[in-house]
Amino acid sequence: MDHSGHGMNMDLPPFTLGRGLPFSADPFFLIGCVLALGLYGYGVLRLRRRGDSWPVGRMVFFVIGVLTIALVMCTRLNDYGMVMFSVHMVQHMVISMLSPILLLLGAPVTLALRALPVAGRGRKGPRELLLMLLHSRYMKIITHPVFTIPLFIASLYALYFTPLFDFLMGSKTGHLAMMVHFLAVGLVFFWPIMGVDPGPHRPGYVIRMLELFAGMPFHAFFGIALMMATSPMVETYKHPPASLGIDALSDQNWAGGIAWAFSEIPSVLVLIALVFQWYRSEQRTARRADRAADRDGDQELKAYNAYLASLQARGQ
User: Fold this and answer.
1) 169 within 8 A of 82, measured Cβ to Cβ
2) Is the pTM of this model over 0.85?
3) pLDDT of 55-66, one tens digit each?
4) Taking Cα atoms as reference points, which of 225, 297, 259, 273 lies closest to residue 92?
């Protein structure tokens, strides 16, 4: 199906979920999804061949994350998204706020670091280059909240409320670049917050939660602005094809409601993940302390008791 122009030449029937789910792949995202699954599976296979394990949960999260991208980019939802603001907003929310969280929970960077072979002395292979990238100044900048939070917000307001969105929707290449941008912004925003893969910016759990809540309300405000508008705000969707049988303003209200409702979903998912990680971290710390106490005969506790005894003796 032709994606050229604003997609107004698409003679699509009225939208239903059944009409939106049939396969209609964007080649770029189809190849990307297949490659992502293939490389991830190859990494897990390499670990298992040498006797190492990899959590099944991480595999499940990553596969579901890739499938969510395929769902919105490799079905007719992508065709309807060219002419319906509400369907496009589903694509945007999934690919920028749900898919990145699931992909990051799959810990692909950690898998790559464990699966890639170590290069010989004085040589730089893929693993060494990946480590250099992770520790580079560039990575420190693009994963810092001073950069990620404004970028996350600008991807809404600076895109939809300026002519930039209409320009990008004017070509298949522009539409593709926009969707890749949504995915990339989601990944760099949630990466330091999720804290599964190694990265240059890794704050404590409380700070991560604050970073999360610093960005999420702006999605809700954006959705409310769309719902309260009295006229269509985006030129691309002002004149939907008659075959759809929809009103542009009503469709925009639906888009705003989707953006508003979706802002809560990642908050809940990330909070659950952070609380679970925090709990596991505290458990590991407690186990390390117990092992250290077993090794040294609990000298730290004895020293503390001796200190308390000395204070009591002075007070007598």
Assistant:
1) yes
2) no
3) 999 999 999 999
4) 259
